[in-house]
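note to self: the first set is below, dont mix up w the second
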Amino acid sequence: MSRIRTRPAGRVAIALAACAGLVGAVGTPAAFADATTFSYQAGAPTQTYSVPSGASAVLVTADGGYGAAAASEVAGGAGGEVTATLPVSGGSILNVTVGGDAGAAGGDSCDNGVDDTSCGGPGAGPGGDSQQTSASGGGGGGGTELTDASSDILLVAGGGGGGGSPSPCADGGAGGAAGMNGTGGSNCPLVGTASAGGATGGNAGTTTAPGAGGSVGGSDSSGCVLSFYSSSPEDDGVGATGPAGADGSLSGGAGGGGYNGGGSGGTAGGLGCSTASGGASGSGGAGGGGGGASFAESTATAISIGTSSRGFGANGQVTITPIYPAKADLSVKISGPSGASTGAKISYKVTVANAGPGAATSVRTGVATTGLGSVSTTGGAGSGTVAGITGLLFDDSSLGASSSVTYTVTGIVTAKRGAKIGAAAGTRSEVSDPNPLNNAALVSEPVS
């Protein structure tokens, strides 16, 4: 049994006014609405999203484009996947550019009919083109981007790098997934200890700099004379200079686009390399292109940056879900006797209900009585002062939508005949209440 001191009869109205001050503050966003999905369109045009009225944030999941394989053998890199919650204002506009896979429709600036997958994927940061030959590496995937109406970048999912071309005796290096370096090509064994070296992969772009290109493959034996591709500037991979992925070297994979693009892989080394006395010849594998960088701006929360699970041919994608501030319509009602006499034991029932639409958290209800003594309660009440009311204090961690809780307050009438007894109650939670006027209640009756 919890016991508290009573209030004079004339202060019931004051208690009611104080209860009304219990109306809670705005809580954290929690109510999600239907999502809108943006798919890749040919050429990666800018699409727009209008933030619904009342939304305070959006949950965004963005996927970048896939890098292409080289010669249908050496895999390109997967695009990035970025998930984040971004603060927004209702009615604002977001610009969406969805990146495509290498060779995707609309990315035909390099299409010469030889190898469509040498074409970089379109995007906000387009993937690099490779050299459009039967021995070229794969094109890079396009980056996917979300910006605000001022063109400030909010989020980017990088594209994957293209695969490096293999040789008859050596594997090319795989393209790097978004944010990852391309893999170097393997060496081609020649006569004796000689071998034609594999090229290194291109470096991934980062949030601070574009990726550098990989290095041309060489020889690991002085007995092997590099007779071709040994001094041409196209041998080394190309470094990216901005959001676009770097174009491929002679056989290296192109870089993926992104916040900063990835560099291309180096060219296979030692093509035509042989021993000093003639004999076997061959070349190492070319390097894979580096992936483009993914990014989320500094005010974003719940950020997750990883690799997309969308396979080659699915292209990038963006899903936007508006988030509204949570709301819970709390109300309180008091029921009690229609009259009482001095010395009688009476009870008041205080019912707190939540009409939703969301759950109310950290619910607190204060109850003050007047004209009663030996006050006790059920429901685990404590005592304290809330918004100027010194009395019973009920705490509930949560009250779900369309649910209610009832507290019973019992006491002995101490007021004399002709005076009034009564109770006042107020409730609030940490969640925004759309109708605060029903958060307080008062009952009173005369002593007979």
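second set (the one i keep forgetting abt)
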Amino acid sequence: MKEHSPKRWEAFSKLPEEQQGRLRPLAFQRYRLLKFQKDNEPEFYDIGVKRWETEDRIFALTRELKKADSAHEQEIRQKLRAALGKMFDLRVQERQIRISRLQRQINTEKEQMARETRDREQIISQHLELAEKEHGRLGDEDADATTQPSESTTAPQGAD
């Protein structure tokens, strides 16, 4: 928090211990999310860091605005508007990444469905063979339709 959000850290440090205690779990949760993103989702991590920094800027500007005289109010509002615009753009970037991931998943599912549809009879035959060799099984309990028969179903007759 100190690194990416120095203004909020400064304000947090000045709070009474009781208030810090209530806010600490939230700050720790945000930190853990950022750490998770750094380790597992680098495209989200970069945006997350920018969000923290932008949130800190917004925090500082809103405090300035409360104390500002009328001569500086408009200038601070313009800076605040720009920071809020940056925050909006960061949310859009996150959404674009999520949509891209979902689109890849949809494409993968469509490809799998096309393979399964194309290979329908072969898949059914494999499941029939499995059901006949392993009495009581339907032949598809443990995997999707494109899964190849297990080694036990391809073992030579009499090897049981």
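remember for set 2: Residues 6-147 form one domain.
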